[in-house]
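From the methods appendix. Each design record in this collection lists the tokenized structure first, followed by the designed amino acid sequence. Records were kept in a plain field format so they could be parsed without special tools. The example shown here is representative of the layout used throughout.

RECORD:
FOLD TOKENS (399 positions):
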């Protein structure tokens, strides 16, 4: 089993080569969740993920002969970048196998660090199987993303920092994919603070650790916004540690994570990928579980495709009522559309899009449906606009 001593040794290896990221109190998120929230900004690492810690600790442990043979890794992105970056620093040849649908931003960043990229399979498990075959074929060392003692010890250094930076934390909330991060955090956290609660977070679509520990069978989703923790089979080492040391695992849905990403961007001015926002999603979704506690939340990664982020921002605006779609029925006469637009403008909403429909409707002839996409203040403002339109004689409702 991994010990606190292993993690402290890893911290010495990592010293000066990875960022000691800040762990800061968020007053606004604390007000929203009812817990005292402290964010560990691992998205501030050079490769924007905690994965650097375990990757470097593993690579530094290789013998000269092993380094000469090179390394192979499989990853949906963050482990790939961590291995590629530090392998390049250490002069080790590196091949990374990534699922075919890995976000382009992660693929290009990994390639930029000098790794040879192989795109294979539709998910992490297929990529891992192929990577193991390549490593065996070429005699290279396989750097496992989570089920490796050196990798787990490296990830555990994160907990040493958190508890040094914020000694009063009583709960740590950690995303779970294969379990490497939460295993290292749990070993370090429980050794330093036996009463510390360690709570894992998994996507409801990829609850592999929950299934493994409880003997349940759940269907896996085809995809998730938190692709970094979309693992179908947890590690053997990590499963044993989680079973022994982790107090609870909660599940979150896609919408919870989307909301958390937008909140982090808007409130903390920081970018988190889906897996990186899973911890905050747990606080939003399971508020009663954490209310009144001093909770450390690990923002474990910030590598999100810009197009995905743009779509999430827009969906977040819709969810909060700041981007709304309404339908108005009116007589198809000169000036009718202008009257509706005037009412909307006088209600202090901005018209983003207009869709005018005459033919594809069951309204009487000489009538039309007009759909507006509006920038508004909130949901209450949308309701005010609808009420004003009705008072002016129009039939209107939100979509």
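DESIGN:
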């Amino acid at each position: 089993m991994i010990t606190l001593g292993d993690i402290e040794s890893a911290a010495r290896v990592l010293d000066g080569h990875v960022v000691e990221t800040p762990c800061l109190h968020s007053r606004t998120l604390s007000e929203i969740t009812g817990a005292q929230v402290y964010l560990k900004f691992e998205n501030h690492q050079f490769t924007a993920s905690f994965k650097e810690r375990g990757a470097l600790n593993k690579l530094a442990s290789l013998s000269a002969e092993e380094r000469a043979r090179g390394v192979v890794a499989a990853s949906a992105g963050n482990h790939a970048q961590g291995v590629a970056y530090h392998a390049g620093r250490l002069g080790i040849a590196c091949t990374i196998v990534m699922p075919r649908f890995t976000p382009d931003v992660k693929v290009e960043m990994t390639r930029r660090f000098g790794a040879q990229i192989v795109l294979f399979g539709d998910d992490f498990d297929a990529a891992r199987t192929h990577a193991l075959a390549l490593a065996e074929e070429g005699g290279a060392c396989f750097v496992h993303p989570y089920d490796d003692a050196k990798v787990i010890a490296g990830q555990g250094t994160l907990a040493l920092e958190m508890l040094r930076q914020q000694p009063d934390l009583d709960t740590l909330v950690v995303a779970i994919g294969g379990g490497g991060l939460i295993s290292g955090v749990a070993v370090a956290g429980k050794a330093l603070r036996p009463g510390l609660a360690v709570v894992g977070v998994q996507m409801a679509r990829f609850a592999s650790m929950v299934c493994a520990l409880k003997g349940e069978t759940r269907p896996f989703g085809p995809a998730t916004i938190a692709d970094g923790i979309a693992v179908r089979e947890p590690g053997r080492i990590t499963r044993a540690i989680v079973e022994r040391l982790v107090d609870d695992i909660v599940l979150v849905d896609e919408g919870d994570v989307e909301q958390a990403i937008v909140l982090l961007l808007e409130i903390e001015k920081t970018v988190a990928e889906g897996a990186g926002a899973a911890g905050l999603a747990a606080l939003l979704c399971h508020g009663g579980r954490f209310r009144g506690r001093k909770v450390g939340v690990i923002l474990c990664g910030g590598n999100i495709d810009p197009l995905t982020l743009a779509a999430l921002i827009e969906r977040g605006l819709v969810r909060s009522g700041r981007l709304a779609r309404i339908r108005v029925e009116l007589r198809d006469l000169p000036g009718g559309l202008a009257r509706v637009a005037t009412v909307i403008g006088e209600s202090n909403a901005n018209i983003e899009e207009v869709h005018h429909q005459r033919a594809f409707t069951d309204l009487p002839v000489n009538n039309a449906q007009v759909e507006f996409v509006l920038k508004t203040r909130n949901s209450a403002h949308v309701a005010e606009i609808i009420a004003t339109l009705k008072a002016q004689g129009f039939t209107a409702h939100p979509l």
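APPENDIX NOTE: The first strand starts at residue 23 and ends at 26.
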